[in-house]
Amino acid sequence: MYAIRSGSVKTYNVASDGTEYVTGFYLPGEIIGLDAVATGVHPCGARTLETTSLCELPYDRLEDLSAVIPGVSKQLLRIMSQELHSEEQLLMMVGSQSAEARLVALFLSLSSRFARRGYSATEFVLSMSRSDIGSFLGLAVETVSRLLKRLQEQGLIQVNHREIKLLEMEKLRAMVK
Q1: CA 56 to mean position of chain CA atoms
Q2: Residues 67, 68, 70, 73: is their CA dihedral positive or negative?
Q3: What range(s) does the HTH crp-type domain occupy (predicted)?
Q4: Which of 13, 39, 151, 155 has the greatest count of CB atoms below 10 A from its CB?
């Protein structure tokens, strides 16, 4: 497992035909590699999206520490639970939401994750490409670009290259309910 100190990371799987499917985006303060706790094998790959600093968290050492400090195991369970919840939300979103709602849901997720870490909830830089966003949401890159333009024309967001500004949070939230 690794804690992201700065930067960002995407996780992905590669299909038998060589197509890469993005499975997640991770930000500073988040942990990647929880998928290997049970088997010791990471079922997906990970790639940094920008200059990134990681801190290795050897699971066996965390287990030892949990025996001495019970709060450590409770925190690990909380993190794993959050990860499962995020996966469930993603599956529901991709299966049942419109393309526009999926993109807005991603922005709102990033917004709340940045806010939890003391960063702006309404202005942030997307470290991932439009292609990665499309792969993650099950959309073509052209659809992502078209939706970004539409949301901007509606006055809901402002886009300047990879910089995103969420202008109408309540309206955006209403789009994903």
Answers
A1: 19
A2: negative
A3: 97-170
A4: 151
3-state secondary structure of 126: coil
Residue 102 carries which DSSP code?
H
Give kind and range of the element (H or E) at residue 129: none
Alpha helices in the chain (DSSP H): 59-68, 70-96, 99-116, 130-137, 141-153, 169-175
In this predicted structure, the answer to whether residue 143 has a pLDDT above a threshold of 70 is: yes
More confident residue, 84 or 9: 9
Residue 80 is encoded by which pair of tokens? 């794993």
Contact 130, 144 (CB under 8 A): yes
Can you read off the two tokens belonging to residue 146? 């078209």
Catalogue all structural domains in the chain, each as residue range(s) with its CATH number.
1-96 (2.60.120.10), 97-176 (1.10.10.10)
